[in-house]
Amino acid sequence: MDVHADAEERAATEHPKAGSGHGIGPSPLLHLLGLAETPFPVVPDATHFFQTERMAHTLSEILDAVCQRKGFIAVTGDVGLGKSTLSRALMRIFKEQSIRVSLVLNSFLQGIDLLRAITTDFGLESGEHDSMSTLMESLNGYLLQEFKAGYNCVIMIDDTQNLSLESLEMIRQISNLETETDKLVQIILIGQTEFETTLYLPNMRQLHSRLALHKRLSPLNYDELVRFVLYKLDQAGNSGQVVVTRGALRVLFKETHGNPRQIGRLMDRCLYALVAYRTQRIDRGIMRRAAGELNAELLPTRGRRSWNGWQSVFRVQWLILVCLILLIGLTLTRPDHLASVVTTMKSLMDGELKESATDKSQQEIEISRNGRPAAGEQRLSSRRSEIRQFLAAYGLEHHSNTFERALGNNDFTVLQQKVKEDGGWRLLRFRESVEGMKGRSPVLLLESKKGSHHFLFWKPRYPPQEVHLLTDRAALLPLIEDLKRAGFDPGPEQRWGNTGVLRAIARYQSSLGRAPSGVIDEYTYYTLHHDQDRSER
């Protein structure tokens, strides 16, 4: 089933005047999903820029190098890791700080044409027949003028892997424009990983010897991927109408290896699937079907048919091999089991065997021969009573069934949404002990083979959010006031971004005995919240 085509057909049927389109765009699909905008746009999205801890550090180092006029900076990474998005985010910061920027996106321009594009982007007039020396003299005059006026200038070139050696040498000459103490222009070269090979060629040693900073972008890890997906959906106006299960997220990570562009493409296809299948949940099955469709589209038609045919052959051969092993082994050890082996073979060939449940909490309750509940059921009954008492302490006992289902599926998305709607509660889960936490909230402790899990609910004074260098400072005022009251003053507003806030968060996290990441999580929000409660009592 082509979920893309089916979703467009449904959208066109239910909203015939609006038409249909490719991508989630301003089409009726957005309305059907209850979203205000496209969560995963195909173009770089600096407005809803998602920052990991590593990306925050990368931005900080780049901005510091620019502000200290260090000259050359290189940013490299594989296709789809967010280089162009990073360049747009930097443009926003530079604009806010009145830093003059020339951004060159068409790196297929070479030599004098590249230099002309740089000067034009700075607002300088140039003639079609101006020589290289004339353009360089005009650029030098402009940079000196801006330097004397107290402004910094940046040349940022995207896709630098396309530049010729001659063009790179010209850029090196531009970097020679300087005063006795300062560089007149900072140059940021952004390119794919193959640019590193060019950058470190022996005949490029004059260029790479001047490199003040080289940052390599890397894929998202699993935890970052989860936060990325939920953040993008939230920013698009999702308030629970689109649910992504943990199983689906694990498939998403396996299929994309944490590549943001691939994550966006696959999630976009899953949104079509929600409309096509008339559901709200992106589960493991939907994610796998969407991935299969995208993978099939990437294969040539002949190759795809051939591969599908070979897949069928391999599947049959594998089943036959398994059956033969079972048949030989069991016949040698227990001839009387031959009949059961034949039955197993038939089930395998008919495709009737299902995946066995791996989570014992989802298995049927064992009943002993005398009809009394087994020990497992008694433990489950005790746990249910404990869960109900825990929820009753918050007035949420009517969510006990939802809580149990969340435990069984290890997916708390639905529960989180329900308790949020039921009075603004938020569920916190921790592996470590929470006995030292400063709040007075009742805590539920559940033991399993995977370790201890602690649960509690709380109502935040203001909505927790991602905090990074590009976050609107006005939106952070409640957090800043809480940090001040806790004794971790972020200090005055910085020249750029929210470095003071991030450092204050890191110091506060250190005081809690946690890793000082500066990336605020709900644990940090919770403890900071109760620090204020304690100070106000």
| Strand fraction | 5-15%
Widest β-sheet, arrangement of strands: 2-3-4-1-5
Query: Major sheet, described briefly?
Result: 5 strands, parallel
Total number of helical segments? Answer: 21
Low-confidence stretches: 10-26, 301-310, 344-378
* Net shape: globular
Helix content: 40-55%
- What structural class is derived from the secondary structure elements? alpha/beta
How many strand segments? Answer: 10
Could you tell me the radius of gyration in angstroms? 29 Å
| Span between termini | 60 Å
Summarize model confidence as the mean pLDDT: 77
Describe this structure in words.
- The radius of gyration is 29 Å and the shape is globular.
- By secondary structure, the chain is of the alpha/beta class.
- The protein has helices at 3-14, 28-33, 53-67, 83-96, 111-121, 132-148, 165-175, 194-199, 205-208, 222-235, 246-256, 260-277, 284-298, 301-333, 338-350, 375-392, 400-409, 413-421, 477-485, 499-511, 522-536; strands spanning 72-77, 100-104, 153-157, 186-192, 211-216, 243-244, 281-282, 426-430, 444-448, 451-458.
- A five-stranded parallel beta sheet has the order 2-3-4-1-5, sandwiched between helices.
- It contains 21 helices and ten strands.
- The relative contact order is 0.09.
- Strand 3, helix 7 (165-175) and strand 4 (186-192) form a beta-alpha-beta unit.
- Helix content is 51%, strand content 9%.
